[in-house]
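Regression test case RT-17, inverse folding.

Input:
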Protein backbone atom coordinates (compact mmCIF):
# COMPACT_ATOMS: atom_id res chain seq x y z
CA UNK A 1 0.00 0.00 0.00
CA UNK A 2 2.89 2.31 0.82
CA UNK A 3 4.49 1.66 -2.57
CA UNK A 4 1.27 2.55 -4.39
CA UNK A 5 0.67 5.74 -2.42
CA UNK A 6 4.29 6.85 -2.43
CA UNK A 7 4.69 6.26 -6.16
CA UNK A 8 1.46 8.09 -7.00
CA UNK A 9 2.43 11.03 -4.76
CA UNK A 10 5.86 11.33 -6.36
CA UNK A 11 4.39 11.06 -9.84
CA UNK A 12 1.78 13.72 -9.13
CA UNK A 13 4.50 16.22 -8.23
CA UNK A 14 6.46 15.24 -11.36
CA UNK A 15 3.46 15.67 -13.63
CA UNK A 16 2.49 18.95 -11.93
CA UNK A 17 5.96 20.34 -12.61
CA UNK A 18 5.58 19.47 -16.31
CA UNK A 19 2.36 21.51 -16.32
CA UNK A 20 3.78 24.37 -14.22
CA UNK A 21 1.23 23.69 -11.49
CA UNK A 22 2.34 24.73 -8.01
CA UNK A 23 1.13 21.94 -5.71
CA UNK A 24 0.65 23.06 -2.12
CA UNK A 25 -0.56 19.84 -0.50
CA UNK A 26 -1.40 16.25 -1.46
CA UNK A 27 -3.04 13.51 0.56
CA UNK A 28 -3.11 9.95 -0.79
CA UNK A 29 -5.02 7.29 1.15
CA UNK A 30 -4.60 3.68 0.01
CA UNK A 31 -7.00 1.01 1.23
CA UNK A 32 -6.97 -2.72 0.68
CA UNK A 33 -7.12 -6.13 2.28
CA UNK A 34 -4.80 -9.10 2.44
CA UNK A 35 -5.90 -12.66 1.85
CA UNK A 36 -5.50 -15.90 -0.03
CA UNK A 37 -2.71 -18.44 -0.11
CA UNK A 38 -0.14 -17.18 -0.77
CA UNK A 39 -1.26 -13.92 0.80
CA UNK A 40 -1.86 -11.14 -1.73
CA UNK A 41 -3.28 -7.64 -1.69
CA UNK A 42 -6.96 -7.59 -2.60
CA UNK A 43 -9.50 -4.86 -3.27
CA UNK A 44 -6.92 -2.08 -3.43
CA UNK A 45 -8.15 1.45 -4.03
CA UNK A 46 -6.81 4.89 -3.30
CA UNK A 47 -8.15 8.40 -2.97
CA UNK A 48 -6.38 11.68 -3.64
CA UNK A 49 -6.87 15.20 -2.33
CA UNK A 50 -4.66 17.82 -3.97
CA UNK A 51 -4.43 21.54 -3.29
CA UNK A 52 -2.67 23.59 -5.96
CA UNK A 53 -2.46 27.04 -7.48
CA UNK A 54 -4.63 26.05 -10.44
CA UNK A 55 -8.30 25.74 -11.37
CA UNK A 56 -10.39 22.84 -10.07
CA UNK A 57 -10.51 21.44 -13.62
CA UNK A 58 -6.71 21.61 -14.00
CA UNK A 59 -6.18 19.88 -10.65
CA UNK A 60 -8.74 17.19 -11.48
CA UNK A 61 -7.08 16.60 -14.85
CA UNK A 62 -3.68 16.37 -13.14
CA UNK A 63 -5.02 13.79 -10.66
CA UNK A 64 -6.55 11.68 -13.44
CA UNK A 65 -3.53 11.98 -15.74
CA UNK A 66 -1.22 10.92 -12.91
CA UNK A 67 -3.41 7.86 -12.35
CA UNK A 68 -2.90 6.98 -16.03
CA UNK A 69 0.92 7.26 -15.92
CA UNK A 70 1.86 6.22 -12.37
CA UNK A 71 4.34 3.35 -12.62
CA UNK A 72 3.62 1.12 -9.62
CA UNK A 73 -0.18 1.25 -9.83
CA UNK A 74 0.07 0.47 -13.56
CA UNK A 75 2.53 -2.37 -12.94
CA UNK A 76 0.06 -3.94 -10.52
CA UNK A 77 -2.97 -3.32 -12.74
CA UNK A 78 -1.28 -4.93 -15.71
CA UNK A 79 -0.01 -7.95 -13.75
CA UNK A 80 3.73 -7.44 -14.18
CA UNK A 81 5.55 -10.69 -13.34
CA UNK A 82 8.11 -10.49 -10.55
CA UNK A 83 10.74 -13.17 -10.10
CA UNK A 84 13.48 -13.94 -7.62
CA UNK A 85 16.54 -14.00 -9.87
CA UNK A 86 19.41 -14.61 -7.45
CA UNK A 87 19.77 -16.22 -4.06
CA UNK A 88 22.73 -15.92 -1.72
CA UNK A 89 22.66 -17.60 1.67
CA UNK A 90 25.56 -16.62 3.94
CA UNK A 91 25.90 -18.64 7.14
CA UNK A 92 27.68 -16.77 9.92
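Golden output:
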Amino acid sequence: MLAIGGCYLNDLYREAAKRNIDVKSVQVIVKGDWGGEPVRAQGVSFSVRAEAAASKEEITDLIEHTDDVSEIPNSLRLGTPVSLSEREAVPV
